[in-house]
Design the sequence.
C-alpha cells in the first residue's frame, strides 16, 4: 500500500489544502440574511481577521465552521470535512463569559479539558497531558497561576487560559471570537504574539473575530469585513479604505491613518461608534 | 421529657454488638450509598443541579408509594418515578431558568401524589412515612444486592463518561465546539442521577436525599478545587455521614435521617469555617 504513495507529494498537497473553504455561502438568522455570496479560503499558517459592526454575523461565521449553525445556501468545508467533524483539530476561543467564583476547577484543569476532555473515561496516563498543559500555559505566560481556582482569576487571566486551552490539542485551525477582550495592552501583545508564534510553528490557520484591528495590523494576512451592505475580503490596505467601507456601509466613511493606527470615521460627524474597527487614536 | 430521657431516646447503645451484627447489611448499604452520593454529588454541583435532585426525589417518593399501594416492588417504583422526573427535567429544561420552573412545578405534584397513595394505603403510617423521612430497617441480602447493582451501574456509567461529562458540565460551549455530545450526555447523566436518587431515598428518605447527594460535594468544594481531591473528599464526607449516621441510630427508635443530615451538615459547617479561616489568613498575608 505504502509503495503507491509518492512520499514527497504528501506534505506538499497537504500544505496546499485550505483549512477552511467557504463557497458562495449565505447565512440567515431569524429570517434576516446576515451575509451572502461569501467566498473564503483560509490556508495553513494564514491569519484572517473578521471585522464588522455588531450583528453583522462575525461570531455566526465561526459557529458555521464549528457546525452549530447551518448555512442557508452554499458550502463550507473545514479541514477537508463537513463542519463539526474535526474535533480536536480545531482550537476554539469563545466570546468571553467569566466563570463563577465557585467554579470547581483550577486553571490547569480548564486547559486540560482542551487536551483530552472529549475522550471517554478518565485520564490514566497523566504525564503527557501535564506536559502539554504546562507548555500551553507557558505560551500565554499563565504558568504561575496554574493551580489557582479559575473563578478567582481576573477576566484577563481567564482569557489567557482560553487561549492556552485552544492551543493544547495542537489544532490545525484556530477560531478566536474576540480573544483580546478584557486584556490590558501588555497582555494583548503577549497573547497575539503567542497566537502568531503558534500559527507559524504549527502551520495552523487562524480566523480571528475582533472589533479593533489595530493591535493585529502587523501580523494579519487578510481582512474579511462583514457589513450591512455587503462584505469584502483582502489585504488590510485594500479593505480598510474610505471608498470600500463607504460602499459596505452605504454611507460616507473616512478611514484615517493616525500614527499607523486605523481610525474609521462615519459621515464626517466624527462619530465612529458601531463601525467595527473601533480604532481610537 | 428530661435531658436524660432525651439522650437515651437519641442514643441507645445497649446490646450494641448484637444489633450491629443484625443490621450489618444496613451499614454496608450506607457505605455503598456514601460512595455513590459522593461521586455523583460532584457532578451535581458542577452542573448546578441541586434543586433537580430535590425534584427527582419527590417524584421518586410518589413512585415508591404508588408501588407500596399496588403491592409491587417499592425500589422499582421509586426508580420508575425518579426516571420519569429526571427525563422530564432533562428534556424540557436544558436552560437553567426553564429547568428550575419545571422542577418547581413537578416537586409539589410528586409530593402530593405520594401522600395520596400513602393515605390510601391501609398499613401502619409510621412505616409508610419512612419513605419521606428515612428509616433503619434490616436490609436483607437481595435488597443489598440490588443496591450494589444500581451502584455499579451509576459508578460505571460515570467512569465511562467522566471526561466528556466534566467538559460539558464546566465548559459547555467549548465542549460542544469540540464535538462532545453535550445534550446526550446531559440526558445520560439525568438517568444516572435518577438511579442514585431512587436508591438513596430508601435510606435517608425523599426529603433528605440532598444531604447525601449535595451536602458532601458542596462541603468538599469549600476546601478543595482539584477535581480528584474534591471527589475523594466528597466520597469520604458522604460515607462518614451515612455509616456514622447508621451506627449512631442503630439502638434508637428514631429514623436514621436526622443522624445522617446532622453529620453531613456539621462536616459542611467545618469546611466553611476552614475556607473562611484560610481566606482571612491569605488576606492578612497580602496585607503585610
Sequence:
Amino acid at each position: 500500500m505504502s509503495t503507491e504513495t509518492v512520499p514527497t507529494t504528501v506534505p506538499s498537497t497537504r500544505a496546499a489544502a485550505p483549512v477552511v473553504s467557504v463557497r458562495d455561502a449565505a447565512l440567515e438568522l431569524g429570517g434576516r440574511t446576515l451575509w451572502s455570496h461569501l467566498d473564503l479560503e483560509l490556508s495553513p499558517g494564514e491569519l484572517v481577521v473578521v471585522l464588522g459592526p455588531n450583528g453583522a454575523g462575525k461570531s455566526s461565521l465561526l459557529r458555521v465552521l464549528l457546525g452549530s449553525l447551518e448555512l442557508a445556501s452554499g458550502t463550507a468545508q473545514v479541514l477537508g470535512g463537513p463542519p463539526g467533524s474535526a474535533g480536536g483539530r480545531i482550537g476554539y476561543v469563545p466570546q468571553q463569559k467569566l466563570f463563577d467564583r465557585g467554579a470547581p476547577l483550577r486553571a490547569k484543569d480548564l486547559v486540560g479539558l482542551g487536551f483530552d476532555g472529549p475522550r471517554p473515561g478518565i485520564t490514566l496516563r497523566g504525564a503527557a497531558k501535564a506536559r502539554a498543559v504546562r507548555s500551553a500555559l507557558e505560551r500565554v505566560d499563565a504558568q504561575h497561576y496554574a493551580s489557582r481556582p479559575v473563578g478567582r482569576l481576573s477576566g484577563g487571566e481567564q482569557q489567557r487560559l482560553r487561549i492556552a486551552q485552544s492551543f493544547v490539542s495542537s489544532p490545525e485551525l484556530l477560531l478566536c471570537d474576540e480573544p483580546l477582550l478584557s486584556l490590558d495592552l501588555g497582555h494583548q501583545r503577549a497573547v497575539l504574539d503567542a497566537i502568531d508564534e503558534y500559527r507559524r510553528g504549527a502551520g495552523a490557520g487562524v480566523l480571528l473575530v475582533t472589533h479593533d484591528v489595530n493591535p493585529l495590523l502587523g501580523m494579519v494576512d487578510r481582512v474579511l469585513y462583514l457589513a450591512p451592505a455587503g462584505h469584502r475580503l483582502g489585504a488590510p490596505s485594500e479593505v480598510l479604505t474610505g471608498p470600500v467601507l463607504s460602499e459596505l456601509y452605504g454611507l460616507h466613511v473616512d478611514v484615517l491613518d493616525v500614527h499607523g493606527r486605523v481610525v474609521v470615521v462615519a459621515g464626517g460627524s466624527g462619530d465612529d461608534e458601531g463601525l467595527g474597527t473601533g480604532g481610537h487614536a | 421529657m428530661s435531658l436524660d430521657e432525651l439522650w437515651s431516646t437519641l442514643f441507645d447503645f445497649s446490646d450494641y454488638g448484637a444489633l450491629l451484627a443484625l443490621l450489618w447489611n444496613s451499614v454496608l448499604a450506607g457505605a455503598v450509598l456514601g460512595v455513590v452520593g459522593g461521586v455523583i454529588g460532584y457532578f451535581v454541583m458542577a452542573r448546578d443541579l441541586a434543586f433537580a435532585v430535590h425534584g427527582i426525589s419527590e417524584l421518586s417518593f410518589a413512585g415508591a408509594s404508588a408501588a407500596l399501594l399496588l403491592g409491587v416492588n417499592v425500589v422499582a417504583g421509586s426508580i420508575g418515578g425518579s426516571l420519569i422526573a429526571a427525563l422530564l427535567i432533562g428534556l424540557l429544561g436544558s436552560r437553567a431558568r426553564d429547568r428550575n420552573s419545571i422542577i418547581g412545578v413537578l416537586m409539589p405534584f410528586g409530593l402530593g401524589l405520594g401522600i395520596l397513595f400513602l393515605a390510601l394505603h391501609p398499613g401502619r403510617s409510621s412505616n409508610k412515612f419512612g419513605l419521606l423521612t428515612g428509616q433503619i430497617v434490616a436490609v436483607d441480602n437481595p435488597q443489598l444486592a440490588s443496591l450494589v447493582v444500581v451502584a455499579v451501574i451509576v459508578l460505571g456509567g460515570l467512569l465511562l463518561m467522566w471526561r466528556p461529562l466534566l467538559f460539558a458540565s464546566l465548559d459547555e460551549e467549548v465542549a460542544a465546539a469540540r464535538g462532545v455530545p453535550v445534550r446526550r450526555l446531559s440526558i445520560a447523566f439525568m438517568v444516572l442521577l435518577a438511579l442514585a436518587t431512587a436508591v438513596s431515598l430508601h435510606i435517608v428518605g425523599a426529603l433528605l436525599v440532598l444531604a447525601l447527594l449535595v451536602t458532601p460535594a458542596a462541603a468538599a468544594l469549600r476546601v478543595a478545587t482539584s477535581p480528584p481531591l474534591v471527589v475523594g473528599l466528597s466520597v469520604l464526607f458522604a460515607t462518614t455521614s451515612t455509616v456514622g449516621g447508621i451506627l449512631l441510630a442503630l439502638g434508637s427508635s428514631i429514623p436514621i435521617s436526622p443522624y445522617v443530615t446532622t453529620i453531613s451538615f456539621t462536616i459542611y459547617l467545618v469546611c466553611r469555617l476552614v475556607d473562611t479561616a484560610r481566606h482571612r489568613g491569605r488576606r492578612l498575608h497580602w496585607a503585610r
Notes: Residues 257-287 of chain B form the longest helix (31 residues). Chain B has one domain: 17-287. The two ends of chain B are 55 Å apart (CA to CA).
